[in-house]
Amino acid sequence: MPIKIPNNLPAVNILEKENIFAMDEDRAYAQDIRPLRILLLNLMPTKIVTETQLLRLLGNSPLQVEFDFIYTATYEPKNTSQEHLVKFYETFNDVKTRKYDGMIITGAPVEQIPFEEVVYWQELCEIMDWSRRNVYSTLHICWGAQAALYHHYGIPKYNLAQKMFGVFPHTVNIKEKMLFRGFDDVFYVPHSRHTEVRREDIEKIPQLCILSESAEAGIYAIIDKKHRHLFITGHSEYDPLTLKAEYDRDVGQGLPINIPDNYYPNDDPRQTPVVRWRSAANLLFSNWLNYYVYQGTPFDLDKLNDSGDLSGLYGDGI
């Protein structure tokens, strides 16, 4: 949690440079406490697995959080029981009159299909447009990040010669940004995708900034100028055996698949995978929930709009 200091104390600038989060008295007195409201748009076919992964990470916080779950009405999931959907999920029509502190849009196994040919593309575009007015901070993951970058900024995706598959080392480009507060100089993230976004396209958009990347896996984390939308290309939320399950599935179906990089000891699938990303994953989600949702969202969500930003809180506009 932030430290509270007197208004205009000279130490503020020093603390900001050291990546210490300080809150002045005016901001502290203006705050009140209530549960955060988070909306999860789950586009993954194995919805129970994905919701468990994300809730595990988001639950690693002293903040009180309430969750709503939605799926797309224009596509009926085939790998999740109707009973589970009826009991725990709603559709966009059910929630579109509400406002949320935060939202997560997951990945989806449709990355090799052109965006406009995805059966729920128009519905997803409507949800993404709605999120800009009704959600304070939105975290987009993997294909969800590619879809949002394409929809909001026209950034294309590119097919890879072979699947980006494994656990790769990453570095932080801008260490002062709170999303990566507490991260090691090198940290690991799982990736499992057939497509990518490229630096040269992102750098053409002045509203975006690349926060982290990998020499092997490419761009990892992007943020918008208002600090309201984050785009993560990897799968920090993955369980220890998620990549193994994907590898075993593809091998069983006779599909071309490499052994995931930096995952099995000695690249031997008969051995137990080594988890290298757990601490970074917990930090990523707790930092997002604290610094990009809790510290910025208005107490009265009816006052939410797309004009506010966190630039004054974190220094420069990007």
From TrEMBL:
Q: Provide the alphabetized UniProt keywords.
A: Acyltransferase, Amino-acid biosynthesis, Cytoplasm, Methionine biosynthesis, Transferase
| Reaction(s) this enzyme catalyzes, per UniProt | L-homoserine + acetyl-CoA = O-acetyl-L-homoserine + CoA
Q: Does the keyword Transcription apply?
A: no
Lineage: superkingdom:
Bacteria
Q: In which pathway does it act?
A: Amino-acid biosynthesis; L-methionine biosynthesis via de novo pathway; O-acetyl-L-homoserine from L-homoserine: step 1/1
Which residues are the active-site ones? 142, 235, 237
Identification of the protein by name? Homoserine O-acetyltransferase
Q: What is the lineage of its organism?
A: Bacteria, Bacillati, Bacillota, Negativicutes, Selenomonadales
Gene that this polypeptide is encoded by: metAA
